[in-house]
UniProtKB/TrEMBL annotation:
Region of interest called Disordered, as start-end residue ranges on this chain: 299-323
Organism, as annotated: marine sediment metagenome
Signal peptide (from-to): none
Coiled-coil boundaries: none
Pfam entry (one): Terminase_3C
Gene3D superfamilies in UniProt: 3.30.420.280
Membrane-traversing stretches: none
Protein name per Swiss-Prot or TrEMBL: Phage terminase large subunit C-terminal domain-containing protein
Segments of skewed composition (Basic and acidic residues): 312-323
Length: 323
């Protein structure tokens, strides 16, 4: 794994401070502190049910793009996540979830098409992404339920985790107004909340299964030696995989930052902070865009999202599936 770049001419103490400010804790542990045990404990260390990422639902404008991302699950819980992206600032809001084991495709399709359940204003206009390993599910959604479902880009799991952690990471100096929150919230200002050092990924608090899985998802370890296996635990990760599928289909964090009007204003007022945020985004984009076909001799962290018990399609992640 490539270390974080150091292209800044800043004095070392300032450079180290900015590395700490602009990177997830596990990456700071490895690349700044030289730790060898960062692949331990929780995977998304900046996220939990009480973190700033979890917010009260508010009315999403109908015109915001909608991505519906699914992990078919088989006998395991089947997960559907509804993502809405602010077309101006680039923030991604996870607004609704479906999470149930042993359910039928018809039940999932009915949930999607009911805006009272899914929150999707026009289901015909949404973009649908599904676990690429289950072609039969994709075919049934397309042929029977008339949902324009496409297989997710398949690739190694660690870059997908890195992309999610990048969207989760709080950007120093970024301010985000979250509308229509409860006035009793300690940060509320006239019903809204102003979040400083804001991330680009938000979870509506009604998505309880998604929040729980992301908070509890951990790195696997050898119970005999207590050493990390350098891969995630392969269970209770259905919404985690679905979110990776969805974010892979959205612009990279680097593109989001470049197109965010607030970050453009920061570029003019605090150029150094802007360049730091952009540099971090470039690193995360590099990690998220690794093509699995170019990874040789990689560790077990480069497992695909579909898990060891699923039928894995061995073709390139960008090769279209033919029926």
């Amino acid at each position: 794994m490539q270390a974080l770049c150091d292209s800044s001419a800043s004095p070392p103490p300032l450079r180290i401070r900015n590395l700490r400010d602009n990177n997830p804790p596990e990456w700071v542990a490895r690349y700044v502190d030289g730790s060898t045990d960062e692949w331990s404990g929780r995977i998304y260390k900046e996220f939990n049910a009480q973190s700033v990422h979890v917010i009260t639902p508010f009315k999403i404008p109908d015109e915001w793009p909608c991505i519906v991302t699914m992990d078919a699950g088989g006998d395991h819980p089947r997960a559907i996540l509804v993502l809405r992206q602010d077309p101006h600032a680039g923030d991604v809001f996870l607004t609704n979830e479906f999470y149930k084991a042993g359910t039928l495709m018809a039940t999932m399709a009915s949930w999607i098409k009911n805006p009272a359940h899914s929150g999707i204003p026009h289901w015909q206009d949404a973009e649908y992404i599904c676990d690429p390993a289950n072609k039969q599910v994709i075919f049934e959604f397309q042929d029977v339920h008339r949902l324009n479902v496409f297989p997710a880009q398949k690739g190694p799991k660690l870059p997908g985790i890195h992309r999610v952690s990048g969207y989760m990471h709080r950007i120093p100096g970024r301010i985000k107004r979250i509308p229509d929150q409860l006035a009793k919230h300690p940060l509320a200002d006239g019903g809204d909340i102003l979040i400083t050092d804001a991330p680009y990924l938000w979870f509506f608090n009604r998505c309880t299964n998604t929040i729980t899985e992301h908070e509890e998802w951990c790195w696997d370890y050898d119970q005999r030696t207590n050493e990390s296996k350098n891969k995630p635990v392969d269970k209770n990760d259905h919404t985690c995989d679905a979110l990776i599928y969805g974010l892979r289909n959205l612009p990279s964090l680097e593109e989001v930052i470049k197109n965010d009007p607030q970050m453009e204003a920061m570029k003019k007022s605090d150029y150094f902070s802007y360049k730091e945020a952009l540099r971090v985004a470039q690193e995360k984009s590099w990690a998220a865009d690794i093509d699995s076909s170019n990874i040789q001799g990689a560790g077990e962290a480069y497992l695909t999202e579909v898990g060891s018990d699923d039928e894995i399609d061995r073709r390139s992640e960008r090769e279209p599936i033919e029926y």
